[in-house]
């Protein structure tokens, strides 16, 4: 386990024997697991973006008048599942394509401290598929000490 420097939280990293890194951040500003924002627009906006000099690299244009949130799903690279682990609400993120993207868990409220909710993010990027599977199995075994969930 490697200690990393955090300003307002405890940050550590675990490097697996084959080089993957899992990092955890425990504190008030740990940061939720979020996928990069998708840029999906109706096809009729392409011309307007180009006329205004906007770089459309990475944009997705659909042959529709209106783009709804359900239209985004095929383009997402991650899956997000909400569940309860050891009595706490958790969000678990997994990549749709093994080996590419974020695998991790985020607890948004493990208790209260002097400046807000205590959070925990434990995740890795682009984990080898076997490490991702092992990490996801271990996530379900997480136990949170009740002594650490309140400010002293």
Structure commentary:
This protein is mainly beta. Helices cover 14% and strands 37% of the residues. It has three helices and eleven strands. The strands form three sheets. The protein has a seven-stranded antiparallel sheet, covered by helices on one side. Strands 4-5 form a two-stranded parallel sheet. Strand 7 and strand 8 form a beta hairpin. The chain is elongated, with a radius of gyration of 19 Å. It starts with a strand and ends in a 13-residue tail after the last helix.
Question: In terms of topology, how is this protein built?
Answer:
Elements: E1 2-4, E2 9-15, E3 21-27, E4 40-42, H1 46-51, E5 60-62, H2 69-72, E6 78-85, E7 88-95, E8 102-107, E9 112-113, E10 116-117, E11 119-125, H3 129-139
Q: Strand count, sense and closure of the main sheet? A: 7 strands, antiparallel
- Mean pLDDT equals 86
Strand portion, in percent? 35-45%
Structural class of the helix and strand makeup? mainly beta
Radius of gyration based on Cα positions: 19 Å
SSE order in H/E notation? EEEEHEHEEEEEEH
Catalogue the unreliable spans: none
Helix share of residues? 10-25%
Tell me the total number of β-strands: 11
Shape: elongated
Brief summary of the model shown:
The chain is mostly beta strands and 152 residues long. It is 14% helix and 37% strand.
Using brief descriptors, characterize the structure shown.
152 residues; 7-stranded antiparallel β-sheet; two-stranded parallel ribbon; elongated; mainly beta; 37% strand; single chain; 3 helices
């Amino acid at each position: 386990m490697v200690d990393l420097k955090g300003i307002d939280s405890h940050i550590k990293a675990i490097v697996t024997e084959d080089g993957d890194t899992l990092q955890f951040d425990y504190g008030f500003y740990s940061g939720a697991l979020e996928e990069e924002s998708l840029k999906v627009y109706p096809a009729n906006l392409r011309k307007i973006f180009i006329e205004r000099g906007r770089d459309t690299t990475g944009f997705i244009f659909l042959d529709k008048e209106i783009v709804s949130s359900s239209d985004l799903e095929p383009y997402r690279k991650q899956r997000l599942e909400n569940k309860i682990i050891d009595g706490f609400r958790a969000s678990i993120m997994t990549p749709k394509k093994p080996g590419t993207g974020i695998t991790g868990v985020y607890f948004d409220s493990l208790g209260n401290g002097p400046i807000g909710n205590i959070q925990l993010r434990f995740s890795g990027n682009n984990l080898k598929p076997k490490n991702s599977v092992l990490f996801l199995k271990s996530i379900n075994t997480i136990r949170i000490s009740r002594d650490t969930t309140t400010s002293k």
